[in-house]
Design brief:
Blueprint (H helix, E strand, L loop, with lengths): L2 H11 L2 E5 L5 H12 L3 E6 L2 H11 L7 E3 L7 H11 L7 H7 L3 H10 L5 E4 L5 H11 L9 E7 L11 E5 L9 H19 L4 E5 L10 H16 L4 E6 L1 H5 L1 H7 L11 E3 L3 H14 L3 E8 L5 E3 L6 H20 L1
Parallel strand pairs: 1-2, 1-4, 2-3, 4-11, 6-9, 7-8, 7-9
Antiparallel strand pairs: 5-6, 5-10
Helix pairs in contact: 1-13, 2-13, 6-7, 8-9
């Protein structure tokens, strides 16, 4: 069973409620319908019922078993406004400003999740990442870390790689632009935990660079090496190494030449990029030029699961993200 099939199976075992605030996007509506039909999650659409129903009728999308909420007509609007003002008091919003914000499906949906009236939220099909982050960082706290980050799951079939689970995690390709060495180490620590939770096997972390263990020297390579060293001291039992070129991190034959005394031995399953520039370019190239399967970005480190889609996302990618979000919600409820 591949990664996403296993995730969907887990989601069905303990069905969660996921909010979709971008309810006039046809891709979102199709994904919502497919998700409910497959029994993966319960779906709440936020928006104007008349408009949603009109789109679905024109596109022949069945939303019979989906809930639709209109923020400005919902009986919880006033209580949400008061709770939002409490959560964001450091921003000094007026009552009128909060009223207006809570008419926005994105803000209203996040408040539903915050107040345990839904389990997670997926958006980004028609919002930029910064538009998702703005309410998210005001309403939610981080969990088990001070640093929010993201990961991608990448499935491959290359027999030359040392990772025989055929599944990598990439981080952070979508959120932290220029992390320092301490932030890079923390991103790696949290991603290793995410890998072990999802894959049920030990994480092996490779800190990526254009250099392998001092073959080149620069501020960038030294940052990566310091991050690996710091993480090893903080989590001694975790297998991690850096700085490493990609081939040395994932290919045993190359590792024998470039890092013969290293502990990773070309078997990395978690790959940490030095900055968002290198990470984002890499995952976009893989997404468009290769036949690997990719899932994400998935946010990690937040108290509730809120995940940001690419604006170029497909219906299938939205369905996958909803399933991952639902399984994240299962974990949060257990802890």
């Amino acid at each position: 069973m591949n990664f996403i099939d296993n995730i969907k199976k887990k989601a069905r075992l303990d069905k969660k409620t996921i909010v979709l605030p971008e309810s006039t996007d046809i891709r979102i509506l199709k994904a919502a319908s497919k998700t409910v039909e497959a029994g993966i999650a319960n779906i709440v659409l936020i928006g104007k019922k008349e408009k949603i129903n009109k789109i679905c009728k024109n596109e022949k999308i069945d939303i019979t078993n989906l809930q639709i909420i209109e923020p400005n007509k919902d009986s919880r609007h006033e209580s949400y406004v008061q709770e939002f003002l409490h959560l964001t008091k450091r921003f000094n919003y007026t009552k009128e400003e909060a009223d207006k914000l809570l008419e926005d499906p994105l803000f209203f949906g996040m408040m539903m999740v915050k107040l345990d009236e839904a389990d997670g939220l997926v958006a980004g099909a028609c919002h930029a990442t910064k538009q998702i982050l703005h309410p998210m960082m005001q309403i939610f706290k981080t969990r088990d870390t001070r640093l929010l980050s993201t990961f991608f799951v990448v499935e491959h079939k290359n027999e030359d790689f040392g990772n025989k689970n055929y599944t990598f995690m990439f981080s952070d390709c979508a959120l932290n632009e220029k992390p320092g060495y301490l932030a890079l180490a923390e991103i790696a620590r949290v991603t290793a935990k995410s890998y072990e939770w999802l894959m049920k096997e030990p994480a092996k972390v490779g800190f990526l660079s254009y250099s392998t263990l001092g073959s080149a020297k620069s501020e960038s390579t030294e940052k990566v090496a310091k991050a690996a060293e710091y993480l090893k001291k903080k989590v001694p039992d975790l297998i991690c190494e850096g700085e490493l070129q990609l081939d040395a991190a994932i290919m045993p034959e190359v590792a024998k030449m470039k890092s013969p005394n290293g502990e990773l031995k070309g078997q990395a399953n978690v790959l940490i990029f030095p900055d968002i520039n290198s990470g984002n370019i890499t995952y976009k190239i893989l997404e468009r030029f290769s036949n690997v399967h990719m899932y994400g970005p998935v946010c990690q480190g937040l108290e509730k699961p809120i995940n940001d889609l690419s604006r170029a996302c497909s219906v299938e990618r939205i369905c996958d993200t909803i399933a991952i979000t639902a399984v994240q919600a299962q974990k949060i409820n257990i802890i």
